[in-house]
Amino acid sequence: MDVEECLKEWEDLGTDYKRLESINKDYAAKLEEVGELQASCLKELSHQRYRMSVITGALKRLEKKGVTKDERVATLEKEVMKRKAMLHEIEATLPKQNSLYLRIILGNVNVSILNKNDKFKYKDEYEKFKLILSVIAFVLAVLNLYIDFRPLQLILIFLLVWYYCTLTIRESILKVNGSRIKGWWRLHHFISTVVAGILLIWPQNVPWSEFRHTFMWFIAYISVVQYMQFRYQSGVLYRLKALGARHNMDITIEGFHSWMWRGLSYLLPFLFGGYVFQLYIAYTLYQLSYHPEATWQVPYLAAMFLVLHSGNMYTILSTMQKKTQSGLELRYRLRAIAYRLSNELTILEQKWRPNKTEQKTD
Ligand code: COA
Fold this sequence. Notes:
This protein has helices at residues 3-64, 71-91, 100-106, 116-146, 150-176, 183-200, 206-244, 253-288, 297-324, 328-349.
């Protein structure tokens, strides 16, 4: 290129730049519009919640006064439940403030995932992350059962500190994005981080040598249970997604329900086995705390394993009780519908012409 050509190119590029400027102007205006729409959605959402709380409060007062519950009230209660589930799904499409824990760790960066498919991918990745780490922990635990080598023990325990710490962050992000994960499972992972931290600084003494094998068996056992949990959770995730898919012919809500119970009846005995193991560890550590060489770590760990056992037992029993209640099918039906609605929104976003929605799970 000579100078003349360079000048001509520059002039040409000027026209292209004008085009870029106008696209960017459109983009900035749309961003502003999106911000305004998000704010008015949030306002309408709290309006809905406020008026619903007034209605449910009035219904409760009527029940207390002994007014008999007729068919109209039963239908209204069902409608309120449906609306609550739909509001939860609408909320999931709006940006949310980070929890205090995330603000401390990540600062004020936005971790809201507004598209359901991206949420699905994030959850799927979280389950796979747990699986990979469980495989590594299993291998290290088995090695530690056969080889008495302190650095190998420390590698496993340090891996556990990092793993549980990472889980608490990922689960907080899932929670911000509308996951219904129970507070106990998140607290369980916070406590497990502390347990692993204390194990890391437990000095190499006689009580440790006596406890080491039990601990390695426990890690190997929960890694296998984790693999079973992975099979169950990814099954739930893929079936819910399939339920929400348009033109879905393979799965019905009743089919999903019976699959879920089959999966649970296979998983639950192993979970209870894990909780009995935790109780046994708490007891072993309690006994070891009377050993003359026992350091402060031993009784603290005993108490923590007892807390983990009790919390797990209580939460799993209340989860099972909830699952046997009659509203469960309706709740899953609504979640499937929410998947379908968001799929349709994505399709609309991509400017596809929507076809007639099939009504299988309605
Ligand atoms: N860890 C992470 N997330 C969990 C979870 C756990 N232990 N248990 C449930 N969740 C999530 C579900 O994936 C679901 O998420 P979503 O809202 O994003 O879809 C949400 O919490 C609600 O789940 P829920 O319907 O209450 O239960 P479920 O059918 O998905 O799972 C169990 C029920 C019992 C299988 C499950 O809670 C579990 O495996 N618990 C045992 C965990 C444990 O004890 N581990 C240690 C072994 S020693």
